[in-house]
Every structure is written in structure tokens, then in C-alpha cells.
Amino acid sequence: MSALRQRAGRLALQVRTARPTAARSTRSYASGHGHHEPPHTVEESLGPAFYFTLATFAGSILVYSISRPGDSGESTIHRWLRKTSDYGTEWETKNHLMTAALEQAAHDKHLLYGAERSTHYELSYPEVFTHGSPHNVPAGHFANIDKVVAHYKKQYHEDEARKAKKLAAASQTSQ
Questions:
Q1: Model-level pTM?
Q2: How far apart are CA 11 and CA 5, in angstroms?
Q3: How many CB atoms lie within 10 A of CB 84?
Q4: Which range marks the domain in which residue 165 is found?
Q5: What is the pLDDT of residues 125-174, one digit of tens each?
Q6: Which phi and psi angles does 67 have, rounded to 5°?
Q7: Does a structural domain hold residue 156?
């Protein structure tokens, strides 16, 4: 009986290795000791085709709405085209005015640069002569400006006398 038992054992072993059971054929790639992580979720975007379709739909609604005639009987597209056709003449007018203004400014600039300049400066106080560095005055010397001071004092007294006469005449006419 032992030969029979050995033979049955070998036959059972051959059958078991030739046809593996379902529990043995499945493999688990999970690592760890007793805890399992949930599978990774893949978040896919909607893709460019979805956004293209959505934009096409919105664009067609927009084109339809602006192509419909409004209260005045013409569509928004026609009003826009009419406005853009007038756009060129408006810019032409602006450019012409700008060119005329620039030419006038250039003419005025040449007039100012070419005009005779006055060399007479009215000075309000005598110290203005000695503010800067002295010209043609040797070091250690001072320029004598007594004649200049006398001239401006005389001019000041004449102005004051003229103003006093004018005020006296105005006060007599008001009485």
C-alpha cells in the first residue's frame, strides 16, 4: 500500500503544479505589513476639444446677437463698420491739425532764435552787481559802483514822484 500511496501523492503533486489555483495565480504587488494604501486616483482634464467646443458655442451666440438688427434697423456690425470707415477721415483731420501746430511752433522757434535780444536789464538793487565773480577786477580790489547806485537812486526817486502826482490827481478827481 505504500507504493500506491506514493504514486497517488506524485500524481496529486503533478496535477497541482500543472493547474495552479486562482488564489496562487493572482499576485499582489502591495508592499507593507498589513496596511494597504488606496489606489492612486488619476484626474484627467477636460482637454482642448471641450474648450474649443465651448468657445465655438459662445462665439456663435455672440455673432448671432450682434448680427440682429437693433432699434435703429441696422445691426451692430453695420454700425461698427460705418464707424470704422469714418475713422480714417477723423485721423486725417487730427493729423492735419497736429502738423499745422508743429509747423507753427517751428516757425515761432525760429522767430525767437533769430530776434534781436535786448541787452538792457533793469536791476532792482545795487548788490546785484557784486553777486558773482568780478570781471576785469584784480584780486584784492573792489569795483566802484557808486555811479551805478546814484543812477538807480535817482530813477527810484523819479518813479516815486510820478506815483505821488498820480495819486494826488486821483484823489482830487474823486472829491
A1: 0.27
A2: 10
A3: 9
A4: 126-132+142-174
A5: 766 766 776 677 777 777 777 888 888 889 889 999 999 999 999 888 87
A6: -90, -10
A7: yes
